[in-house]
Each structure stands twice: as C-alpha cells, then as structure tokens.
C-alpha cells in the first residue's frame, strides 16, 4: 500500500529492519507449527548389552543371565539370537533389586547418599575440555547409579548441546540458571529450570545467552555499591539448596566464556573443584594463570566474611598423548608440582571422543561400532578410570571405603580378556 502524501515516510533503522525480518519469519513458521519454544533432541538412549550391564554392576554375565531366566529383576529385551539388553532405567531397577537381596553389597549396587552424607557440588573449571569432562563425568556418575544434576553456566550452551538441547537455535525466556538467580521479580524456583536427559537419574540446567544479563547486572551492582562484592554467588548457593534433597552430586560446568560473577558463584557453591590441565608447557602456563584468578575469586568470598572450605581441589590431565615425549615430561612436571592433587588417570587424546562429539554424543551413548572398537575401548578405559577416581574421592568424603578404581581396573582387565565373549553374551 503506497504511503499517503500527507503521511511522512519513515525509513526503518538497520536494527529495526533486521528485527522485522526475524519476526516475519518466526510468525510464518509459527503459523505452520514449525517454531517450537526450544529445540530439543529427544532421541532415546541406546540399550546396553548384558555384557555391558555386567561390567557396570560389577557382577558376572552368567549371574545376570540366570536372574533373567528365573524371572527375577526387570525383564530384558530379547534381540537377535536371544541376546539380552537393558535400558538404563532397568539397570537402576537391577541395582535396587541386588541391593535388597545382597544387603552387604548395598553401597556397591546403590551408591546414592545416605542420611548425614552431604550433597557433593563439583565445579569443573580451568579452560579447555571443561565441556567434555563435565559431560562424561555426569553421564558416568548416572551410569553408576548416582542422582546427578548438571548445571551449564556457558552462555553459549555448549554442554546443553551435548545433552541434545540447542538453546541457540530458537529464542526462549527464563529457562536457564539465570532464571533461578536473577535479581528481579521474574526469578523462579530452581525446580522450574531443571530438564531431563535421556539418562535415567541425570538432569540438567541449560546454559543460554541470558546468563550474560546476570553478569551485566552483577557488574553494575558491584560498581554502584562502592566495589563491595554483590550477592551474586550467594544466589547460586541458595538456588542449589532448593534441590539439595533430590541429588547426590551436582556438576557445574564453568566454561571459559563464563563471566566472573557466575564463576565465583560456582566456586562458592562448590564442595570440590576439578581443574583441567593440558600436558603442554604453554597450556600449563594458562593453568597457572587460571589458578591466580581462582585464588582471587576465593579471596573475594573470604573478604565478604564467608569461609571457603573445599572437600577437595583436584587436577585432571586431558587430551593427553602418552606417546609424546614432551607431554610425558609435562605430566611429570604437573605431578611433581601438584602431588596427590593430580589425578592418577589421564584422559587420552582420542579420535573416538572427538568423533562422538561431532555427533553431539558421548561414547556412553554410542556402540563401539560407531567409532571403531579399538579406539572406543581405549577411550572408555581412560574415561572410566578418571570417573572412578572422582567417585572414590566422593566416597572418601562420605566416609565410605574406596572401591571404584579397583572395580574399573578389574573391568578393564576382564574386558581385554573377554571382548569377544562379551559380544556373544545373551
């Protein structure tokens, strides 16, 4: 419709024109039902073979097979040639059954925290591999029967994407940690921002661009209050207390893109911190610089009159090529400097891990055939060994005897000896 001669023509600004195009496209998609509030990849988790379940539970395949024949525990799916497989929910049902029938081994089968054992909140920080480490730690804990909450503090939602939750594809509002810690009246309960994953017992809080708004407002408050530290970190602590009874472990993903106020909140809420370190001198220098920031952030909390007493601060070597002499020397340097605070296991550089990541999947979600059996088994050995150390640290905090490292070692040995027979388990 042409403009009236009596009505002055007003040209859109660039931002208004871009916004108008976006709204027009979105409205037309909405009319066709093609513009959901968020994009969520909800493909189910694959079933696990009887051999895999036996390794996860630390029992023999023949024992599980006999339980199935006797009609005890959950009923597995029967596939080709009668091969049995279980969903993760059925594995957890097996855990409950075994814990009730073998009470002396109840902690082994059902490791959830008991009365008097405090929630473990682990902040994963320090640079590269925080996303991968957070992903494999949370999924590994869930596979072992823990109730786990992952909190993604990355404004880009990198961990959320690995859970199949693509927050940057479509716009949404008040659906991240920002909603539970924001300063205005739109603040919601922590329960409102928790989402399920395909792993039974594992939930997560998405990361989104709205986290940047929290950083901006926290910065403004900081400067307006004569550089007195704002209550940003206390808000994180209070939000997690709302769901304290629902979980055994919370893992907070502190990506390099996280702002300082979000990171300080993660550090104050944490009962333990896991710091990433790559075995190259330039990257070790970055780790040392990060530790200076870490120390500064903790000192700010202490200056505000709140003590910081971690159950542990541990370091993890990631993307390690054990055949590289310079990297071997770098690991030795780290071990000489950090002592027992450096985990014994290292996560090896792996094409299998990288290929799974390109599929927005973890190796726990894929079968060996998807990335090659040899590469798959080698990568899983390093990942499971790392997770086992962390779980033993948690057990120690709870006053329990360590068992996961020895169990992982036995599983690895058995796996190498019986890889062919596992494939034939029914």
Automatic annotation (TrEMBL):
Residues 121-281 form the AAA domain. SUPFAM superfamilies: P-loop containing nucleoside triphosphate hydrolases. Coiled coil: none annotated. InterPro entries: AAA_dom, DNA_Partitioning_ATPase, P-loop_NTPase, Plasmid_partition_RepA. Residues 14-24 have a biased composition (Basic and acidic residues). It holds the Pfam family AAA_31. Residues 1-24 are annotated as: Disordered. Residues 1-13 have a biased composition (Polar residues). NCBIfam families: partition_RepA. PANTHER family: P-LOOP CONTAINING NUCLEOSIDE TRIPHOSPHATE HYDROLASE, PLASMID PARTITION PROTEIN A. This is Plasmid partitioning protein RepA. The lineage of its organism: Bacteria, Pseudomonadati, Pseudomonadota, Alphaproteobacteria, Hyphomicrobiales.
């Amino acid at each position: 419709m042409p403009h009236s001669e009596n009505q002055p023509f007003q040209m859109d600004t660039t931002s208004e024109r871009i916004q108008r195009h976006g709204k027009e496209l979105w409205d037309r998609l909405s009319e066709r039902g093609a513009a959901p509030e968020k994009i969520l990849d909800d493909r189910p988790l694959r079933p696990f073979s009887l051999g895999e379940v036996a390794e996860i539970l630390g029992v023999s395949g023949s024992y599980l097979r006999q339980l199935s024949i006797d009609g005890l525990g959950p009923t597995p799916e029967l596939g080709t040639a009668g091969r049995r497989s279980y969903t993760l929910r059925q594995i957890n049902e097996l855990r409950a059954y075994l814990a009730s029938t073998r009470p002396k081994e109840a902690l082994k089968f059902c490791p959830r925290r008991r009365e008097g054992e405090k929630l473990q909140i682990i902040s994963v920080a320090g640079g590269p591999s925080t996303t991968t480490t957070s992903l494999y730690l949370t999924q590994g804990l869930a596979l072992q029967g823990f109730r786990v909450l992952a909190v993604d503090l990355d404004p880009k939602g990198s961990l959320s994407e690995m859970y199949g939750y693509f927050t940057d594809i479509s716009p949404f509002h008040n659906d991240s940690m920002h909603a539970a810690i924001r300063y205005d009246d739109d603040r919601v309960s922590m329960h409102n921002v928790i989402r399920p994953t395909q792993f039974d017992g594992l939930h997560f809080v998405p990361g989104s661009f709205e986290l940047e708004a929290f950083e901006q407002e926290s910065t403004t408050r900081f400067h307006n209050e004569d550089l007195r530290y704002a209550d940003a970190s206390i808000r994180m602590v209070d939000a997690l207390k709302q769901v304290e009874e629902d979980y055994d472990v919370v893992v907070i993903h502190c990506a390099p893109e996280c702002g300082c106020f979000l990171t300080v909140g993660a550090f104050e809420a944490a009962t333990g911190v896991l710091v990433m370190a790559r075995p190259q001198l330039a990257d070790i220098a970055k780790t040392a610089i990060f530790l200076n920031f870490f120390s500064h952030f903790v000192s700010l909390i202490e200056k505000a009159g709140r003590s910081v007493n971690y159950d542990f601060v541990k370091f993890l070597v990631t993307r390690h090529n054990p055949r590289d002499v310079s990297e071997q020397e770098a690991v030795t340097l780290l071990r000489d400097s950090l002592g027992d605070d450096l985990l014994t296991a290292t996560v090896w550089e792996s094409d299998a891990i990288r290929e799974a990541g390109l599929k927005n999947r973890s190796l726990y979600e894929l079968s060996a055939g998807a990335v090659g059996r040899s590469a798959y088994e080698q990568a899983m050995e390093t990942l499971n060994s790392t997770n086992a150390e962390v779980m033993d640290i948690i057990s120690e905090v709870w006053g329990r005897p360590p068992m996961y490292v020895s169990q992982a070692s036995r599983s690895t040995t058995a796996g190498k000896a019986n890889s062919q027979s596992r494939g034939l388990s029914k």
